[in-house]
Amino acid sequence: DGRMPLTPLVSWAQRHEEIYLRVELTDAQVTQGHGAKGQNEYEFSLEFLLPVKSEVSHRSTQRHVNITLQKEQRGWWERLTRQERKPVFLAPDFDRWLDESDAEMEIREKEEKKNKLKSQRHEEKGFVSLTTGMLFVYNLVQFLGFSWIFVNMTVRLFIFGRDSLYDTFHTISEVMFFCQILAAVEVLNAAFGVVRTGVIPTLIQVVGRNFILFIIFGSVEEMHNQPVVFFVFYLWSAIEIFRYPFYMLGCFNTEWKTLTWLRYTIWIPLYPLGVVAEAVAVIQSIPIFDETKLFSIPLPKAVGASISFSYVLHVYLVLMFLGLFINFRHLHKQRKRRFRTKKRKAN
Ligand SMILES: CCCCCCCCCCCCC[C@@H](O)CC(=O)SCCNC(=O)CCNC(=O)[C@H](O)C(C)(C)COP(=O)(O)OP(=O)(O)OC[C@H]1O[C@@H](n2cnc3c(N)ncnc32)[C@H](O)[C@@H]1OP(=O)(O)O
After folding, report:
1. Which of 50, 64, 124, 210 would you label with 200, given CA atoms 20 to 30 Å apart?
2. Are 33 and 54 spatial neighbours (Cβ–Cβ below 8 Å)?
3. Are 66 and 20 in contact (CB under 8 A)?
4. For residues 24 and 70, what is the distance between their CA atoms, to the nearest angstrom?
5. Domain named CS: which ranges (predicted)?
6. Please, which residues bridge with residue 306 across strands?
7. ipTM surpasses cut 0.90
């Protein structure tokens, strides 16, 4: 309409690396906007004191246009424009205004914040890697222990045949004691959320095995030479030589598909077989506990007798099959979760 463009009010502030300009225009559209003199075309030009980079970022709000420019060289400018006299449309932006020392303080604060955050992340990372490292060592020790048990039993079976079934306890029990005491760590891992698993299934597994190992086998000498010891130990170690290396790889976020498949599949026949072997051991030990009165609970003298530990064993037999049911369901869930996520990842 032939009208001359008007000059908007511009306020400015600086930091060591940036220049901020705030143009007082409401509802600005490119160069058009509603300024102090209403809807018009506005323009302004400034000759900066020192060079700035060509990339400019701007953001329009309902009341202003905010422009940010990057100084070519980091530093503090004594004024914005080349000419000493300040243009009339230019004023300091008091909302953002800082003098040089305040700006330096701001930088220092920002850096301190950044460093704090960095060291926090570092500490967290350090903690995670320490936990992973400890888990890895734990799994490695268990893997070595159970591999030794499995290989030793297999070699002895080949060399001595059926005879090897009768002295399993004497040759293997010490390493088995060590591995199974150490397995209590798994309950702690589950309880403190170190690994993604439930406490109950882990507790059932660890308490169940240690009951057989220390009470049924360990405390009854007559059980030491029973072939059932061979079957129980063989079944326990057969799963662990796959489970622990699977966890070891997991500590490095890697996997070997065959190993994953074995870890989540061979428990299907081994778990019920293991529970059956353990049940056989419990049943075999019942007459021995009755005879020796070991762990029997004494009753008051007036009643005269004592309650045989075999009653506890009868209850335990029921608990075993309850435990089998809970853990079978848990392992089935873990298997489905593992293979479902993998399939989804592959898609
Ligand atoms: C309350 C007390 C009551 C007592 C009652 C007694 C009842 C007695 C019942 C006794 C039955 C026991 C019979 C048993 O002794 C017989 C046998 O063992 S026979 C041999 C076959 N056995 C098996 O196959 C079982 C082996 N054991 C297990 O699988 C575990 O112990 C079990 C707790 C059962 C299941 O393991 P979990 O829940 O941990 O499943 P996942 O392997 O899928 O792991 C889940 C995620 O956690 C990560 N994880 C777990 N452990 C570790 C580790 N040590 N290091 C690193 N990472 C670990 C794993 O990678 C999974 O993570 P993600 O999902 O991210 O991959």
Report:
1. 124
2. no
3. yes
4. 21
5. 5-81
6. 298
7. yes
- The two structure tokens encoding residue 6: 């008007």
The end-to-end CA distance of the chain, in Å, is 62
Element spanning 38, H or E: strand 38-41
Checking phi first, is residue 69 left (phi over 0); if not, alpha (psi -120 to 50) or beta? beta
The backbone torsions φ and ψ at residue 220, rounded to the nearest 5 degrees and listed phi first, read: -115, 105
Q: Which of 101, 16, 18, 104 is nearest to 66 (CA)?
A: 18
Dist. CA 15–CA 99, nearest whole Å: 9
| Cβ within 8 Å of residue 289, ≥6 positions away | 220, 295, 296, 308, 309, 310, 313
pLDDT in tens, 179-189: 999 999 999 99
Q: What is the pLDDT of residue 28?
A: 72
Cβ atoms within 10 Å, residue 150: 19
How far is ligand 1, taken at its centre, from the CA of residue 245, in Å? Answer: 14
- Ligand 1 lining (C-beta closer than 6 Å): 135, 139, 195-197, 201-205, 207-209, 235-236, 239, 243, 247, 250-251, 267, 270-271, 274-275, 278, 319-320, 323-324, 327, 331, 334
Segment 248-255 mean pLDDT = 92
